[in-house]
Amino acid sequence: xxxxxxxxxxxxxxxxxxxxxxFLLLIFFLVTAQMAAQARKGVQLPVEPGESxxxxxxxxxxxxxxxDGLVRVGDRGVDPAQLQQLAREAAARxxxxxxxxxxDRAAPAAALNAVTEALRQGxxxxxxxxTESGGRP
Amino acid sequence: xxxxxxRSQDRGRPLINMTSMIDATFLLLSFFLVTTAMQRMExxxxxxxxxxxxxxxxxxxxxxxxxxAPGAVEFRxxxxxLADAAALRExxxxxxxxxxxxxxxxxxxxxxxxxxxxxxxRDAGFERVSYAAAP
Lengths: 137, 135
What we know:
The complex is a heterodimer of chains A (137) and B (135).
Chain A: H1 16-39, E1 62-65, E2 71-73, E3 76-77, H2 80-93, E4 100-103, H3 109-121, E5 126-132
Parallel strand pairs in A: 1-4, 4-5
Antiparallel strand pairs in A: 1-2, 2-3
Helix pairs in contact in A: 2-3
Chain B: H1 7-10, H2 19-35, E1 42-48, E2 62-69, E3 72-77, E4 80-82, H3 85-92, E5 101-105, H4 111-123, E6 129-133
Parallel strand pairs in B: 2-5, 5-6
Antiparallel strand pairs in B: 2-3, 3-4
């Protein structure tokens, strides 16, 4: 007499950690992609290695100077008076943090001069000019 | 003593099919992995802003005035006109570093030129660097 062998159960791998990691990666890419798009829209930074050491990585006010000389903070264009007011507010919030200027390499120095003058009048002690370091931190 | 759950008990639990969700998630993940453009590393060049008036606070600093057109700048230091960056580097290298350098930028050159000058001054060993528009 032949007995039927019991049906063999398939081993099921635990998928939970893999799904967790996948979702974490997905959320990371979703968040960072939006941030990068906001901050780096349409600006080609000057190609310079920059300084070898920086005291603070924090940045309060970020001023963008486009190639045509248009100055904006965030998504809106600002004139020198508005920039001066923004610099004053930023200096009141965090006096030690210097504003970051993200200026297009082809923009006229006149635009950078206007920005630095507005920052100076707004009470900023200095500024940090963003560069494309191309490997060297 | 623990008993293994019988198959009849398993039959009562609702099973959610995760396959389609995992498929969609992997698809999105692959999309972001492929489309994400890796940005180059960024550096920063700091410049102090003289809060007294352009240049007046740096009485001891070496004043470097930058003039010219984009890509064709000339430098004026203590009455001398220097035609290129190499000459400026040679002039700055042996100077004492403590007083610092005051960069005075005219409106003619470009932002790339301004960044190049700030970089040159930093590379020459100066820690105190101020920036202002040339009067």
